[in-house]
Specification:
alpha+beta; Phosphorylase Kinase, domain 1; Aminoglycoside 3'-phosphotransferase, Chain: A, domain 2; six-stranded antiparallel β-sheet; three-stranded antiparallel β-sheet; about 45% helix; binds 2-acetamido-2-deoxy-1-O-phosphono-alpha-D-glucopyranose; binds magnesium ion
Length: about 350
């Protein structure tokens, strides 16, 4: 990826000659995000969209417009940052490298990366659940898939299988045990295939598709949700996506970048809080079938993410940004270890199991 041409984007926003400074923000693995400040202390959020991942950035800004308007109608526009047009009036700016940028209000806030404070988890979960609830009237047919088949477990499994044929031989050998363990869990792929074939039971709703704690903007006390961030993957999706990502990212004893991935486990109290807060906020909207499979959400998403990290490792780290050798392998091991821990907890405490 090119070094982001932030100066060009700033000129497109504020014009040549203005004085400003900027700083890099966020911990995303895909896009580059900045907070830019003018000499008058006005602040704006600017993001270079990764064109190798999002081939049609128009879809992102189109979805954002629709979502922002729908939230305005519900007096809930504060839930996301207001999109800001560039000086040309366009919502996207293309720099001389051919990379696209978008801008939005900067929301001064506190980001929390991990916590064991259950009241904070509850707030975050209610934030994502009410986002979907608030947008229940929005016709999902009007929203674009910003990434085709993004949380399609069947596709992710096929990509993994393909990496086993085309991937780096030494990396395949090195992760043989993990490949085998993931292959044993194709019951999750079968479950996914069954649910997409039953549209009356499993409906498409507006899902954030990256529902992690750090994508919630808290006020400075950390006791109130200000807004939801990182909306580039907000699009129609199934019931398991956001709950599953929350379980994946908020109930783990260590995050996916730990250098000791085999030590991770699910924190039972965190799981219970995430699960029950989500269910209680959204259950009226879900079908009987969806409610009965809510515990599958974490399993499906953690399994999918383990496949995705491992696939990227086998293919030479082309997708996820890494800071050290073997990081994607460790991330895949982390997810797999977390999956085993969740399977165990669900079986013992909730008598829930997927064959
Ligand atoms: C990516 O870049 P970031 O951290 O917002 C990925 C998510 C993964 C996540 C894993 C577009 O999100 O699906 O869950 O990494 N987003 C995309 O950390 O692939
Ligand atoms: Mg994201």
């Amino acid at each position: 990826m090119h070094k982001p041409l932030i100066q060009e984007a700033l000129e497109a926003l504020w014009g040549v000659g203005d004085k400003w400074h900027h700083e890099s923000i966020g911990d995303g693995l895909i896009n580059y995000s900045y907070c830019a400040t003018t000499q008058f202390n006005e602040r704006v959020f600017l993001q270079q969209i990764n064109g190798a991942v999002f081939s049609d950035p128009d879809r992102i800004v189109s979805n954002l417009q629709l979502i922002y308007s729908a939230l305005q109608e519900r007096n809930a526009a504060h839930l996301i940052a207001r999109p800001i047009p560039f000086k040309s009036g366009a919502w996207l700016f293309c720099d001389t490298n051919g990379q696209f940028w978008r801008a939005a209000d900067y929301i001064p806030s506190k980001t929390i990366h991990n916590t064991i404070d259950l009241s904070v988890l509850r707030l975050a979960v209610q934030g994502f659940a009410s986002f979907t609830t608030m947008l229940s009237e929005l016709d999902t047919g009007k929203l674009y898939p910003t990434l085709d088949n993004f949380h399609d477990l069947s596709l992710r499994y096929n990509q993994f299988r393909q990496a086993l044929h085309e991937g780096d031989q030494s990396r395949i050998a090195e992760t043989g045990w993990l490949i085998e363990a993931l292959e044993k869990r194709t019951g999750y792929v079968r479950l996914y295939r069954q649910l997409v074939e039953a549209p009356a039971d499993f409906k498409k709703r507006v899902m954030h598709h990256d529902a992690k704690l750090s994508n919630i903007l808290f006020d400075s006390t950390g006791q109130q949700v200000m807004a939801i961030a990182d909306l580039d993957t907000t699009m129609p999706g199934y019931f398991f996506s956001d709950l599953g990502d929350m379980v994946r990212s908020m109930s783990a004893s260590a995050d996916e970048n730990t250098e000791q991935p085999k030590k991770v486990h699910v924190l039972p109290a965190a799981y219970e809080t995430i699960f029950s807060s989500y269910r209680d906020t959204i259950k009226e909207q879900l079908t009987v079938a969806e409610n009965s499979l809510l515990h599958a959400a974490g399993l499906l998403m953690i399994y999918m993410q383990s496949l995705r990290f491992l696939t990227d490792f086998l293919q030479g780290d082309r997708y996820y940004q890494t800071k050290r050798q073997g990081q994607n392998k460790d991330r895949a091991v982390h997810q797999y270890t977390l999956l085993c821990s969740l399977e165990d907890l669900l079986q013992k405490k909730y008598q829930f199991h997927i064959d």
